[in-house]
Every structure is written in structure tokens, then in C-alpha cells.
Amino acid sequence: MEEFWQHPLIETAGYYSVVVLCMILFLAVFEMVTKYNNWDEIKNGNISVAMATGGKIFGMANIFRHSIEQHNTLISMMGWGIYGFVLLLIAYFMFEFLTPRFRVDDEIRKGNKAVGFISMVISIGLSFVIGASIT
Question: Based on the structure, what is the number of domains in the chain?
């Protein structure tokens, strides 16, 4: 039975399932902290929200990618992935705090593509830093 659980196809399915569930949960958390409904805005064609949300999805996937590469147990991979998500969430709040001239969420909701793009790049860029530091 041990061979079954260590087969690459089974391990891949396990990692995939856990990461998809974590990403759904993490996107729900981001949905709660933003002042707009991500999926309604995307449905209505708000490119700025799509870029910011896409950056978060890419960032989370990249963090989990590094976590899977560096850890050989599902629990360890999840722990580092969750830790990486928390760091991305902190970066989201820092971005809002460090822009006192405007409210990031309000600008993204209004469709300001420049703010949506910067938000996307912050999420993606920091995911590489977080991923590189996962040991």
C-alpha cells in the first residue's frame, strides 16, 4: 500500500487537490478583504480587477510550486504555502497603506488599469521572493 501512495501520479493528484482547495479558500479570504466583489467586477469586464486577481492567483500558485519542490510531505507543503499566502496578504495591506494619496481598492474597482497592473506585479514579484526563501 505504501507504494501506491508514493506513486508520482497519486502524489501529483494529492498536491493538486490540496493546492486547488487552498487557492479557493485564499481567494475567498481576498474576497472578504477587498471592498468590491472580484467575480462580479470580472464578469462586468473590469480589467483592473482581473489583473489584480490574476496576480494573486499566479502568486499563490508560484508559492505552492516552490513549496512542493522543497518539501516531501503534504503537511509541510501546505504549511509553507499557507505561510506564503499570509505574506501575500500582508503585502496587500502594505500596498494600501503605502499609497496614502489614493485608496487602492477604490481605484481598482473604478477600473484604474495602472493600479490593477501594479497590484498584479506586486503579487507576482513577491511570490518569487517568498518562493525563493522557502526551504
Answer: 1
Q: How far is CA 1 from the centre of its chain?
A: 34
Mean pLDDT, rounded, for 44-65: 97
Cell numbers that stand for 3 in this block: 507504494
Kindly state the DSSP code that residue 73 receives in the 8-state scheme.
Answer: S
Residue 33, burial from CB neighbour count under 10 angstroms (0-12, 13-18, 19+): exposed
- Could you tell me the pTM of the whole model? 0.89
Domain extent for 108: 2-133
52 contacts 92 by C-beta, under 8 angstroms? no
Q: Name the burial class of residue 82, with classes exposed (0-12), middle (13-18) and buried (19+) by CB atoms within 10 angstroms of its CB.
A: middle
